[in-house]
Amino acid sequence: MKNNIGFKDFLQIAIVVKDIEKAAQKWAEILNVPVPEIRVDTPSYNPQLTYRGKEAFYGLKLAVIMSEERGIMIELHEPLEGESTFREFIEKHGNGVHHLGFIVGDRRDAVVEEFEEMGYPIRTLGYYPGSSWTILDTEDDLGVNLNIKPRD
User: Fold this and answer.
1) What is the pTM of this model?
2) 90 confidence band (pLDDT: 50, 70, 90)
3) Residue ranges of the alpha helices (H) in the chain?
4) Which of 43, 72, 81, 145 has the most C-beta neighbours closer than 10 Å?
5) How far apart, in whole angstroms, are the C-alpha atoms of residue 17 and residue 11?
6) What is the model's pLDDT at position 1?
7) Whether pLDDT at 74 is above 90
8) Model confidence at 45: pLDDT above 80
9) In whole angstroms, what separates CA 94 from the centre of its chain?
């Protein structure tokens, strides 16, 4: 690849679960950390969020366990109502690793474009103040999707 991603860019492991409260409790026990706060995002209109090229409208529970020492995080996602990449994954696979996330800075567009040229389309694209996230549909070949971010 011309626009490689590397271990230095690694940021997150995102796991989709059917019961986020149970998963958050178990991860906290295993890692000896406080149980993370669980955020509930109800479906809301957001023209800057897409799923498979169409405007997305879905709910999600989210918890983040951050390793300050390593600068990496485990994200737990429990899909709620509506179609989403997380619902698609859990219906196909059950609980499991949905994506690995990488921060690539100003190379974001070039990295995403190169992956698309390689046959890995954008599965989900979302913008939030100061950054964005792009989930590339790589699970058939890599066993996991990729999240390409310009910054955290």
Assistant:
1) 0.93
2) very high
3) 20-31, 85-93, 108-117, 139-142
4) 145
5) 20
6) 87
7) yes
8) no
9) 16
**Measured between alpha carbons, how far is 31 from 12 in angstroms, rounded to an integer?**
16
Residue 107's alpha-carbon distances to 3, 5, 30, 51, 100, in angstroms, are: 7, 10, 35, 22, 17
CB-based contacts of 144, cutoff 8 Å, min separation 6: 97, 98, 99, 100, 138
pLDDT at residue 106 greater than cutoff 90: yes
A 10 A CB-CB count for 82 gives 15
Count other Cβ atoms within 10 Å, centred on residue 110. 12
Give me the amino acid identity at 56. A
**What is the CATH class of 7-149?**
alpha beta
Q: Which residues contact 101 (CB under 8 A, 6 or more apart)?
A: 10, 11, 12, 13, 14, 75, 133, 146, 147, 148, 149
Question: Can you give the residue ranges of every domain in the chain?
Answer: 7-149
Contact 57, 70 (CB under 8 A): no
CB neighbour list of residue 58: distance below 8 Å, 6 or more residues apart: 43, 51, 79, 80, 81, 82, 83, 84, 86, 87
Tokens of residue 77, six digits: 């996602």
